[in-house]
Specification:
The protein has 219 residues and is of the alpha/beta class. It is built from 8 helices and 6 strands, in the order H-E-H-E-H-E-H-E-H-E-H-E-H-H. The model has no long low-confidence stretch (mean pLDDT 94).
Length: 219
């Protein structure tokens, strides 16, 4: 539950965390529809009223990138959450150049973060074929951060691409991709990738205070 995850984050010493359940477009993950997002927001507001001084929650939503680069959640609904995290989970063809697909996504004004950009999954799919210099430059121009995902089956971005993203001017978010309390330890994998890539601390958004991160979201 949201409250179980929040308490676990607090025990790990985190000052804040962001809830990023999947949108309805990813059926395998039982994604949230608009009403589900609103109900979750009420629970987050209640948590922050009662516990926010110890551990603050922010609301994000991991929206599905459709094959043409558009998103599965309409603009009006995207504006209702604090942070829109865009990610590819389907229609991954390793032989097809997906650069234009991702360019359309990162140039969508309501998108804040591009999650696990390659979309790779060990022993399942190799990930997207993309001209990464072009996509990362577009992210930097649009102010879209890119994620280093520490989940062991992803490790995406890897250290080489993370270094390229930083060299292209991107800001970075480290993520455990936790779906349960034990997964929170995967932050260590994301941190290790960032260290291997020599990502400067000032480029990592979620080592900042919550109010600084919220200011970035608004900008």
């Amino acid at each position: 539950s949201l409250e179980t995850m929040a308490r676990a984050c607090g025990r790990r010493g985190y000052a804040w965390s962001m809830v990023t359940d999947h949108s309805r477009g990813l059926e395998v993950a039982s994604g949230l529809d608009r009403e589900g997002v609103r109900l979750q927001r009420k629970r987050i507001e209640l948590w922050n009223d009662q516990h926010g001084e110890d551990h603050q929650l922010l609301q994000g939503l991991e929206v599905e990138v459709i094959i043409d680069g558009t998103l599965d959640v309409p603009k009006g609904e995207r504006l209702e959450v604090e942070c829109v995290v865009a990610a590819v989970h389907s229609h991954v063809d390793p032989d097809r150049d997906e650069t234009e697909r991702l360019l359309r996504t990162v140039n969508t004004p309501e998108v804040h973060i591009l999650a696990h950009p390659r979309g790779r999954h060990f022993h399942h799919r190799p990930g997207l074929k993309v001209r990464w210099e072009t996509v990362f430059s577009a992210c930097a121009d649009a102010g879209v951060a890119v994620e280093i995902n520490g989940f062991p089956r992803r490790q995406d971005l890897d250290s080489d691409l993370a270094r390229l993203a930083v060299d292209s001017g991107c800001e970075i978010v480290l993520a455990s991709d936790a779906h349960a309390v034990p997964h929170l330890e995967f932050d260590a994998y994301a941190s290790a990738i960032a260290m291997l890539a020599e990502v400067p601390r000032e480029r990592i958004l979620n080592v900042k205070h919550a109010d600084e991160f919220e200011d970035w979201l608004k900008r």
